[in-house]
Amino acid sequence: MDIAALSTELSQMKLAQEASISVMKMAMDISKVQAVDLTQILEANTKVMEQSITPHVGQNIDIKL
Known about the structure:
mainly alpha, 78% helix
């Protein structure tokens, strides 16, 4: 076996593995951002749904002295 060819092939495999790991990390970061955004949207929708079910709650305050 040619040592130079083997060295070149191992170097290329290492580079390909590092590129794959980098892409995977980017995908994980994007997924985290999407999860946070989805959570915020769900929280906002929950508030809207609560107000549509009981719109009168929280609008008036009875104060007696």
